[in-house]
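Subject: for your reference before the review

Hello V.,

The reviewers asked for a structural picture of the protein, and I figured it would be easier to keep everything in one thread rather than splitting it across files. Below is the amino acid sequence we used in the manuscript, unchanged from the supplementary table.
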Amino acid sequence: MNLLLLESSDFNSDGTAVITGRRCRQLVDVIRATAGKRCKAGILGGKCGTAEILNITPNECRVNFTPEKEPPAKHDIVLIAALPRPQSLCKVLHCATTMGVRKLCFIQTFKVEKSYWASPRLADNEIRDELILALEQCGDTILPEVSFFRTFKPFIEDELENLATGTRLLGDPAGTPAEFQEAATLAIGPEGGFTDYEKSMFYQHGFTPVSLGERILRTEFAVAGLLARLSLK
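And here is what came back from the structure prediction:
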C-alpha cells in the first residue's frame, strides 16, 4: 500500500478518519505504524496528501488527513479488451488502473468463453475492490470507468463511436510497432485473437493494427506491454 486511500464514509464529524479492516491490518502488520507517524494518503475521488496517525490498535486506526495536491493525471487512453478468463481479469484491471487508463471496456468476442460472464469476479464489489488496490499501489485516487458489453456487433455499431478517443489502435502481432500517443483507444482481443470479421469491424471504424512483435502474448501481458508503449515517451 503506497497510498492510504480514505473514503468519505471514514470521516467523523470532527474531521478525523477511522480506518478498520484490511487497511488497518496493513498499517499495523506491514507498515508497523505507530501514533505520530505520517504516511501518504488520499481521498477517493479527491486530493492526495498526508495522514497523521493519531492512535492505532490492531482493529482500528484514527488519522488526521491533510490534502495537499491533485492526484496524478490519467492518460487519455481507452482500453477495449475481449473479456479475459476471470483470473486474468483482475490482472488486467490492476495493470490498466496503475498505468493511468481512464476508461476500460470489456466485450464479448467469438473466442471468449460465455461462461466467463458468470464469474463472481465480475460483481461490482469485486471490481471495485481490485480497482482500489490498484489505486493504492500507484498513488492515485480517481477510479477509472469500467464497462461490460456482452454482445460484439451492438457494441461496435452503437457504443464505439461515443467511447473512442484519439488514435484508434488494434493489438495484432502482424501490426506495426506501437508508439507513444497523446490520446488513444486500444482494442485487444482474446488470447486466440480477434476473428477476421471482428478485425474488419474495427477497421471500418478507423482502427489500425499495432504490435509488440510476432510472439503471441497472454491478455494481461499484451495489455501491459502495449499500454507502456503508448503512454511512455
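For the response letter, the relevant points are probably these. Residues 75-231 form a domain with the Alpha/beta knot fold (CATH 3.40.1280.10). The chain has two domains: 4-69, 75-231.

Happy to draft the paragraph if you're swamped.

O.
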